[in-house]
Each structure stands twice: as C-alpha cells, then as structure tokens.
C-alpha cells in the first residue's frame, strides 16, 4: 500500500512557477503626486503671459539664431574630436612605463583640469599678451617662420583651443579608466601571440574598453554642447551670443532665452538618443541571466510558487 502511494506522488507534476508582482501602494501615491505637480507646472508655463510664446515662435527660426546654432554645432563637433583624439593619446602616455611620458601627461591633465575653462578661453584669446609672435624654428636659434599672434588666434581658434584642449584632459581619464577595466590576461595573451603594444591596444584593448568609455563620452558630448555658451566671453558668435544680441535690441529677454533653451533641449535630446543607441550596440551580449533576475527583483517581482511561500 505504501509503495502505491509513493508511486502516485512521483507521478504528480509540480506546479508551474509564477512571478507574482509585489504591490507597492506607496509608489502609486508618489506617481500620482508627481503627475499632479507636472500638470500644475505645465499649465503654469503654458498660460503664463510673461513667457510671450508668440515672440518665441517668431524668433525660433530667426536667421541670426540659426547661424549661431550652426556655429554651436561646429564648435561642439570639432572640440569633441580634439578632445577624444587628445584624450586617447594622453591616456596611452599616462599608462606608459616611460616616467617622462607619464609625467608629461599627468602634468597636462593636472593643469587643464585644475584651472577654470572660462580662464583658459580668455588666456587663449589674449595669447598675444604673452607671445606677440608665434613661429617655428630651432630652440635658442633662428626662427624660420613667424606670424602675428593676433592674426593666428582668432576668436574661433581660441574657442577651439580652449574647449578642445580642456576636454582632452577629461577624456584622458575616461579612456584610461576604460583601458584599466580590461583584464590583464588579455595583454598577456596578446603578448604570447607576438602582437606589438600598438596592435594590442588597437585590436584587443580599445574594442573591449569602448563599453566603459562610450557612456561618459556621450555625457561629455552633451556637456560640451552646453559649454560652448562660455565662448560668449571672448566674443565668438554662437547660439547664446546671437540671442543676447537680439534681446539687447528689442528687450524681449524672457522669450529669447526660452528660444535658446528650446534649441539646447532639442539638441541634447537628439544626442541622448544617439548615445543610447551606441551604448546598446557596444553592450550586445553583455547582459547575463543574473543581471536579468536582479533587475526583475528590483522591479518588485517575486520568484517561486505559492506553495513554497506557504511552506515558508
């Protein structure tokens, strides 16, 4: 008789495991409060007569505003190229076993990160006060080619030097962190295969480090887009400069500042979408089952059958 009962128990199929969501009433209340506050804020902004939305619409696509926007995009793109290329070189120098190379990179990073960007922009713009002429020649010897510094360092060049060289110092630390995140065994394996240091960096290290480098680089690009507004101190014509010139003439300060803010919001939103796409592309295959389960638990799901919960 006992053998028959045990056989019947063995043939019974186990109950399917179901994920039961945990009800968090506090989250629902918080969500309703946030939604209510959002509705109040939006209604206040839309119905506020001081915003002068009709003036905003008139100047949103103004030729001077669009020309300033174009210069802002050009500054952002070129400055980030200078920053990324310089950051990679500085990071490699910083990790070099040569003490002179490493110290030179460390000194550069210390200098450009330790002084305000607005100060650097002004110094580059008034570089002629320190060096009236710039030239190429033999140290302590004759100069082959020289030119007036005021002619060489225009406001555009000063803006690029200030933004790009400053960004290179921050990108150097980002790239260095990405390189250090790669396991040392990769270097040993590449060395065992007879690969040179340059080949190892280009084919092994950087492709794996990109997963760590991409997110902060995207953040730096978005920050650079907004940081370009600082070149107003050296008189370069960009988005904020164009808006400032217009409201200095018609005294419509509030709506024109909204125009600049809307353009910055639109561009940063586009860059955020591009950054998200790039991050997903470089992180393909990196998600593990443990990560998925951890994320589900953070969202409030419990795993296990109801019988298990009753038994506990």
TrEMBL record:
SUPFAM superfamilies the record matches: MetI-like
Primary localisation category: membrane
Compartments (UniProt record): Cell membrane
Keyword Transferase: no
CDD domains: TM_PBP2
Membrane in keyword set: yes
TM annotation in the entry: 28-53, 73-93, 105-131, 151-170, 229-247, 253-274
Pfam families attached to this UniProt entry: BPD_transp_1
Alphabetical UniProt keywords: Amino-acid transport, Cell membrane, Membrane, Transmembrane, Transmembrane helix, Transport
Domain ABC transmembrane type-1: 69-275
Membrane topology, as annotated: Multi-pass membrane protein
Family to which this protein belongs: Belongs to the binding-protein-dependent transport system permease family.
Protein name: Amino acid ABC transporter permease
């Amino acid at each position: 008789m006992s053998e028959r009962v045990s056989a019947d128990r063995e043939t019974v199929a186990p109950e399917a495991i179901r994920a039961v969501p945990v009800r968090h009433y506090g989250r629902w209340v918080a969500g309703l409060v946030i939604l209510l506050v959002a509705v109040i804020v939006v209604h206040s902004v839309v119905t506020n007569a001081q915003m002068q939305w009709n003036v905003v619409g008139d100047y949103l696509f103004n030729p001077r505003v669009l020309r300033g926007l174009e210069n802002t995009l050009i500054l952002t793109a070129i400055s980030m190229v200078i920053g990324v290329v310089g950051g990679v070189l500085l990071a490699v120098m910083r990790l070099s076993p040569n003490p002179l190379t490493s110290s030179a990179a460390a000194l550069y990073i210390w200098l450009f990160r330790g002084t305000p960007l607005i100060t650097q922009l002004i110094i580059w713009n008034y570089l002629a006060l320190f060096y009236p002429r710039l030239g190429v020649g033999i140290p302590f010897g004759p100069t082959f080619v020289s030119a007036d510094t005021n002619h060489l360092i225009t406001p555009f060049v000063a803006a690029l030097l200030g933004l790009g060289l400053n960004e290179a110092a921050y990108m150097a630390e980002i790239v260095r962190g990405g390189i250090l995140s790669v396991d040392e065994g990769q270097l040993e394996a590449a060395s065992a295969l007879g690969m040179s240091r340059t080949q190892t960096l280009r084919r092994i290290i950087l492709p794996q480090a990109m997963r760590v480098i991409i997110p902060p680089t995207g953040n730096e690009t978005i920050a650079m887009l907004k940081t370009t507004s600082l070149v107003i101190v050296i008189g370069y014509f960009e988005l904020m400069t164009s808006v400032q010139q217009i409201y200095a003439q018609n005294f419509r300060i509030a709506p024109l500042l909204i125009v600049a803010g809307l353009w910055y919001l639109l561009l940063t939103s586009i860059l955020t979408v591009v950054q998200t796409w790039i991050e997903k592309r470089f992180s393909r295959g990196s998600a593990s089952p443990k990560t998925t389960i951890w994320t589900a638990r953070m969202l409030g799901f419990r795993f296990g059958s109801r019988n298990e919960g009753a038994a506990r």
